[in-house]
Amino acid sequence: MTLKLTAKETIQEIQTNFRTLFSHLRPEFYKKSHHSEEGNAKNEQYLHNVTLAEITGNEEDILLEIDPNMSTSDFEQHVKQQHQLNVQLFRLQRGTWLQTTLTDTLSLEAQNQKGIQADIDIEAVKPSDVDLV
User: Fold this and answer.
1) Better pLDDT: 112 or 102
2) Which uninterrupted H or E stretch holds 90?
3) How far apart are the first and last CA of the chain?
4) Of 105, 119, 14, nearest to 64 (Cα)?
5) Phi, psi dihedrals of residue 26, rounded to the nearest 5°
6) Which end of the chain is flanked by fewer CB atoms within 10 Å, N or C?
7) Long-range contacts for 64-67 (Cβ within 8 Å, ≥24 apart)?
């Protein structure tokens, strides 16, 4: 699958588009890269209102090739090597966005399913309404 990133899109718009492919994953963009199984410092993160053009310094759109079976680490390295963008994936799990540092070997699809499953599990333990009549 291919995701088109336009130069005028903000990080927030890119994240929204990415979530149409993987509902529980969100890419964050950073000024510096990170090593496998390491996170990024919050102060190196670009704000969500920054455009792709502001990060890359040019007005070119990017066609981002995404294979759901590639590992999280491979995806992040691919984006770095092909497009010079420092990306860290986050997974939505029980309402909290987590950096996927310790699960970098999981595929993108497995990361997404891990977040979905966590949400299903938490819904299963919610108390139900009780009929008081």
Assistant:
1) 112
2) strand 86-93
3) 53
4) 14
5) -145, 125
6) C
7) 64/2, 64/3, 64/4, 64/5, 65/1, 65/2, 66/1, 66/2, 66/3, 66/21, 66/108, 67/1, 67/108
Q: Average pLDDT for residues 65-92, to the nearest whole number?
A: 94
HSE-up of residue 76 (Cα within 13 Å, Cβ side): 31
Q: Is 72 exposed, middle or buried (0-12, 13-18, 19+ CB in 10 A)?
A: buried
Instruction: Name residue 92's beta-bridge partners.
Output: 97
Judged by DSSP in three states, 113 sits in helix
The top-scoring range by mean pLDDT among 16-20, 121-125, 128-132 is: 16-20
Calpha distance 75→123 (Å, rounded): 30
Among 125, 129, 109, CA closest to 24: 109
